[in-house]
Sequence to fold (88 residues):
Amino acid sequence: MAENKKIEDMSYKEASQELELIIRNLESGDLELEDSLASYTRGVELLKSLRERLATAEQKVSMLVKDVDGADALAAGEAADTSDDLPF
Fold:
């Protein structure tokens, strides 16, 4: 498996693209067992990071929402899907 960039140094887009590539490689069934396990582990780490980033972004957006009078108000939003079912 190629040398991996640190997840915390990756942009959201880079992390999501790498996760998509990992999923494709795992689904292909062409990897050796050891490479599959390493890829799976990396994918789990990427997914965790992406979910944390989304939660942080959602919290920031909620804090920025204001009501018509200019007072701070949290608007009810739709929760992000945290299931493990990936649409890739």
About this structure: Residues 64 and 72 are 8 Å apart (CA to CA). The chain has a mean pLDDT of 83.
